[in-house]
Fold this sequence. Notes:
The protein has 4 helices and 12 strands; from the N terminus they run βαββββββαβαβαβββ. The protein is 19% helix and 27% strand. By secondary structure, the protein is of the alpha+beta class.
Amino acid sequence: MRALRVATWNVNGIRAREAQFVEWVRRDRPDVVCLQEIKATQEQIGEALTMLPEYTSYWHGGPKGYSGVSIHTRRDSFATRPEFVHPAFDMENRVVEARLGDGRVVTSVYVPNGGKDYGAKVRFLEAMGAYVEGVHAAGGKLILCGDMNVARTDIDVTPKERKPGVIGQRADERELFERMIASGLRDICRDRDPTNDRLYTWWPPWRSMRQKNQGWRIDYVLASQGFEATASQVHSDVGTSDHAPVVVDFA
């Protein structure tokens, strides 16, 4: 099995950041790219949008340009076109799965923030945990990528932003997230950099928080035990989204 580079990015609007997306992908050449919050309708998007003919692009845009995810697979990395499906827990165009063959599954997911409907976020996290268990029970190996909207522990939040009870840091959502990881996943970036208290992927868009690197880590590449990661990086220099891309190399 050849090496695999997987990347994820909450692009916060693909139409506003199309050129940045293309430049970054051409630079880093990931085999699989997962995007979240593309904020485009099906009529506004298509395989031609990104000007990346070397990739097969699957867009899952929302009906009102809200939410939305996508997966892009490098054509010369796979012998056949991956199969794209939507797991049963998909809502508001937040989940798409690519079946790569050999039991490998890559899923792009955008977890609800929870600010308007916290109960919906809890139900989504519960269903996502059941989904992970289902993939493993069927013998699959999963790479789950995306904006999870949960900071695992306090080390994943800049000290000034640590507020017990704030959505994204609540004990119950963290517990659901930990339970999912414990069902057979690894948090690649944290496993490879366990004590880094400045490892963030999202920054509040005010008071120069990104320039000061005062943020949260809420974007993840989670992988089944069968995947061996050889490198991981948060590309905080890429783009003008409030999130940064995360890139992981697997052996």
